[in-house]
Amino acid sequence: MKKIAVITSGGDAPGMNACMRAIVNTAWQHDLEVIGFRHGFRGIVEDLNVPLHPDDMRLVSQRGGTFLKSSRYPEFREVEVAQKAAAVLDSHGIVGLIVIGGDGSFRGAHHLNQYWDGQVIGVPGTIDNDLAGTDVTIGFATAVDTAMDAIDKVRETAEAMARVFIIEVMGRHAGFIGLHAAIAAAAEAMILPELEPQPKLAELADGILQARAAFPDSSYVVILSENLWPGGVHELSKNLSKATGVTCHPCPLGHIQRGGRPNAQDRILAMQLGAAAVDAILSGETAIMIGLEQEHVVTVPLHLTFERDKPLDPRLVQLQLGLQGVNIASKGDE
Ligand code: F6P
């Protein structure tokens, strides 16, 4: 039997387990044996191998995180480390490696491809949705649901107490979670890395003061993408409190956004992409990512997924920006 290997790498994402189920089951249907390496690229280098069989995959799809474990492993950029990984893969007679991960993991996969003769296939698994060549990544939809639920909860207490909250969401350097969560949770303002120009402190303060004047008894929620405001959500809240004279409460959502049971959309996406990754190995492809564009499974050269930018949907940005001020404006018309 030919052998293939799979790893989950970088930040875990809900749906990674469902993806492994699809990979293992599809592979066995085609008489391919599957080995997993625990903890991503580090696990290959340290040979933390574990055989994967369809019997073990029956009840994994429902679980968040990754049962195969993951890690961040910057050492993999070094040539000798990638060569060591290639030697370990060869020692097991592995013909193809499937990497489920995000941008850093695909850089690693691309690097490995320079030193290893086997096939390397990427499957996009990251809550950030920041990979070009696919409309969606595994874990994004669940992370948005989780952020929305959390913001809804903050909103209830904010509304009860007529408070202002600045809620920080994840996304590394991309505003996908921020934008989708802001729309879904009907936020009054959003600050995302892609916004040009970036909102200034004075404008944000003005928005809060106008809302306070129009609706003194109501809540106000600002969504802030992480890594954006110097000093983060705490500093912005302090600055806004000072500028407005209204206490602004910081609320970083943090890693809660990475956990939780994958929603149906992520499980189905993961199964589609995982099965297609095995098909790609069977048809001899290498150095590609499997993506989903306009509901169709597509293949994209691996390097393009991290070399090209992935823009936000401008219609969604306009929708949110356009609706943010409508309540206050309508109050002014009364
Ligand atoms: O890439 C997923 C992600 O959750 C980002 O949104 C975030 O910036 C980063 O990982 C956090 O990484 P870590 O868990 O290693 O601190």
Account of the 3D structure:
By secondary structure, the protein is of the alpha/beta class. It has twelve helices and eleven strands. The strands form two sheets. Strands 3-2-1-4-5-10-11 form a seven-stranded mixed sheet, with helices on both faces. The termini are far apart.
Briefly summarize what is shown.
The protein is of the alpha/beta class and 334 residues long. It has 12 helices and 11 strands.
The parts where pLDDT drops under 50 for at least 5 residues are none
Find the structural class using helix and strand composition.
alpha/beta
Strand order of the largest sheet: 3-2-1-4-5-10-11
Distance between the termini: 75 Å
Q: Calculate Rg over CA atoms.
A: 22 Å
Order of helices and strands: EHEHEHEHEHEHEHEHEHEEHHH
- What is the count of DSSP helices, taking H or I runs of 4+ residues? 12
How many strand units?
11
Which strand-content bin applies to the residues?
Answer: 15-25%
Shape: elongated
| Helical amount | 40-55%
Mean pLDDT: 97
Bound molecules: 6-O-phosphono-beta-D-fructofuranose
Main beta sheet strand tally, sense and closure: 7 strands, mixed
